[in-house]
Amino acid sequence: MSVVTNTTTIGAIEAPSRRNTELVMLAFAVAIPVFAYLNVGLALDGTVPTGMLGYGLGIGLLAGVAHLVVRKFAPYADPLLLPLATLLNGLGLVIIWRLDQSPRLMQRAKMAFGGFSPDAPKQLMYSAIGIALFVAVLLLLKDHRILQRYTYISMAVALILLVLPMFFPAVNGAKIWISLGPFTIQPGEFAKIIIAIFFSGYLMVKRDALALASRRFMGLYLPRGRDLGPILVVWGVSILILVFETDLGTSLLFFGVFIVMLYVATERTSWIVFGLLMSAGGAVGVATFEPHVQDRVTAWIDPFDCYQTDGACQQIGDALLSFGSGGTLGTGLGQGNSDLIGFAANSDFVLSTVGEEFGLAGTMAFLLLYGLIVERGVRTALAARDPFGKLLAIGLSGGFAIQVFVVAGGVMGLIPLTGMTLPFVAYGGSSVLANWALIGVLIRISDTARRPAPAPAPSPDAEMTQVVRP
Known about the structure:
Blueprint: E1 2-7, H1 19-45, H2 52-73, H3 81-100, H4 103-113, H5 120-140, H6 151-163, E2 178-180, E3 183-185, H7 187-211, E4 213-217, E5 220-223, H8 229-245, H9 248-266, H10 269-287, H11 291-301, H12 311-326, H13 350-357, H14 359-383, H15 387-412, H16 429-450, E6 463-468
Antiparallel strand pairs: 1-6, 2-3, 4-5
Helix pairs in contact: 1-2, 1-3, 2-3, 2-5, 3-5, 3-14, 3-16, 5-16, 6-7, 7-9, 7-15, 7-16, 8-9, 8-10, 9-10, 9-15, 11-12, 12-13, 13-14, 14-15, 14-16, 15-16
């Protein structure tokens, strides 16, 4: 009698990595800004701009390096996050270069600073450093769950970053910058990532207690009084930021990220209601005695009433006029007058250039690109296998969405101006670096979430023994 043993092993189903899809999308993400660069040059003086080849090679090289790193170290990551960020960054460089060509801005810079220094080359350098930081995140952060170990350390670091600007002079009425020699840094941009790490670790442990309700009132389950402590502390810190730094944007971002993550962790609508009421109450209270906030509220209520007397009103009024001038399809790249806004045309008010030269259709396309980044982040949160990864992905995505909303809402007149920068598009090194790091963390979480589970060890039940009789 002979015995023949056949063993069947259960293997993991190999999921597609989608890296080739990412590569094709990256090609479009590089080609569209290069075409836009050509369009600006032809619109301004009717010739092909001399720097187009260098610009195309530069952004193509940066995108290629980022793609190769993702292909090697995060092969199962979301295939759209990198192309979307590259497209927005590339279009932002084109818009900043277009504003650099404005004779009005050159003349104003010479009168104010004694000379004109173009911002587009510096923004390209910041973009290169940002992609280097993106690469560093993927190389050093092998598993996002490691960040959970630094929950309370991240809280301390975030508070330090938020407090530091108080000790430096105010810039345009707000203390949001720190100066290190010739360099200036906006620490709030980096604090939003570190805050999300702290909230993720904290809420993962405390979410069961925070989800408990004491009684029902007007259809809402009210939280227990003892559990209101965390939200009161975060609300108090956000109010202090608003009072001492007169920075409405960072205050809204800090408190908004916490409320979003608290709602996701507890699934209690009451936290959203409490958060909105407390945020509105704090902002109204501070606006009653803080002149800088009062000026921005006044400009928001009627930007044309104080058009000739207040600089904030004039900027918002010019921004609204640029949106109206753009109409549905825009005036065309290089053919608008958004440079009349002045020194903040390529930073706080860069969306005005988009609205005038791309029109309503182009503005909606830009907002759709931001919406896709948020959607891919939320999809990553849903796919994550661990609660910390879910909360971190939703926190980063929520913070990104809140920043886009407060910037776009302020420029369009929906809410008071906050002074924050539009991610990837506006001029500013801190913003570009922080948002590329944010994309790197999201890609790491998505790679872990989409990576196939390892095959289980063979089970004795999987062995089939066949007895063959002569």
